[in-house]
């Protein structure tokens, strides 16, 4: 069984954002943003005006 690819940049703000979705391929995981015109923001995101905290997020 193939090993799951690692989550990219765990420190990225996107992981705690409602707008982020993970797109998985066999080799990689990409972060897809539904809030910005740039659907694949350069990682890691440390500051973002469109950030929407997920419920329960401590940010
Ligand atoms: S809105 Fe900002 S923080 Fe949220 S997923 Fe998009 S780029 Fe990441």
* Tally of DSSP β-strands: 2
Strand order, largest beta sheet? 1-2
The number of domains is 1
- Residue fraction in strands: 15-25%
Oligomer: single chain
**Rg, alpha carbons:** 12 Å
* Global morphology: globular
Indicate the mean pLDDT.
91
Global structural class: mainly beta
**Number of H/I helices:** 0
List ligands, each type once.
Answer: iron/sulfur cluster
Can you tell me the residue ranges where pLDDT is under 50 for at least 5 consecutive residues? none
The percent range for helix content is under 10%
The first-to-last residue Cα distance is 36 Å
How would you sum up this structure, described in words?
The protein is mainly beta and 59 residues long. The chain has one domain (1-59). Helices cover 0% and strands 17% of the residues. The chain is built from no helices and 2 strands. It has strands at 20-24, 29-33. Strands 1-2 form a two-stranded antiparallel ribbon. A hairpin with a 4-residue loop joins strand 1 (20-24) and strand 2 (29-33). The structure holds iron/sulfur cluster (SF4). The site of iron/sulfur cluster has 13 residues, from loops.
């Amino acid at each position: 069984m193939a090993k799951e690819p690692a989550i990219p940049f765990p420190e990225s703000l996107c992981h705690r954002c409602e707008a982020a979705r993970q797109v998985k391929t066999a080799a990689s995981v990409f972060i897809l943003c539904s809030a910005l015109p740039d659907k694949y923001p350069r990682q890691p995101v440390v500051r973002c005006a469109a950030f929407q905290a997920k419920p329960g997020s401590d940010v």
